[in-house]
Amino acid sequence: MGGIGLVLGGGGLVGHAWHLGVSAALADATGWDARRAAVVVGTSAGAVAGAELRAGFHPYDLLRPGVGAAPTDTPRPDIGPTSRRPACLSLAVRALAPWRLRPGLAAAGLLPRGRRDPAIIRDAVTGLSDRRWPEDPLWVCAVRLDDGRRVVFGRDAGVEVDVGTAVAASCAMAGFFTPVPVGGHDHVDGGAHSATNADVLAGAGLDLVVVSAPLSLRPAAGARRRRRRPPGPARAQRLAHAARLRRELQALRRQGTPVLVLEPGPDDLAVMGGIAASMDFDRRVAVAEQARAGVRRRLERPELAWERSVLAAAAQRG
Fold first, then answer.
1. How far apart are CA 308 and CA 298, in angstroms?
2. Cβ 148 vs Cβ 213: under 8 Å
């Protein structure tokens, strides 16, 4: 394929703001326009950001409130009766097997079907694209609820779906949003499989893959190994996402694909809050500004000179 691949992970409204700040920082530091990525892989909030970029919105414009598809109010009222019945108990049982433990899939199966209407996401994305898939590749990751299979809309053959519905399915957080039916199967948040799904680009022959991972955690530089108390729930969840991402990066690097990973550090997390704050509307502007400034500083480091040169060369070609 060649060119630059862009992976945008999940993370709610705060994660969406992180992606905008990251994309703006890449443009600041190298001139590379995220809209020109050879392929964009989006999961949940990253699927929304990817659809916005593919619809032609520049990251600078998306930093303005009210521009793009990100909601500015709460989702639609509850629909359907209240239930505590697991959405798919058989999926949970398979995901909890010791030899294939997958906590995200187990949660998707154990949680009841959500009662919020994901049409708010579908309609917003449809308003950007008029239901048409973009000409340049946009791969949207979701999970099929009945068997836990990852589905990549826009890439997988035999799946007919408009872009708004695909993004809504990728965002259908288990236990909150109602699953989205596509092709006779209910689908939920692609984050149930992985918060990033970067491994779908393994073997794509790209010059560089840029991964924006708002739910991960950047390793502390030069940190000494020492005994510590067990991490709290929020940090443990981020560490689990980071470990999953590292395995995906190995799959990319085994194929000879260089990767630039952009994850929050301690200063970023102070602004982003815990994972439980991922749907906090009031944090969006501050998070985008923090990500833009922090990533721009990071891209200035000498050890990233090669990545900067690749992005700058792609910007010149674009």
1. 11
2. no
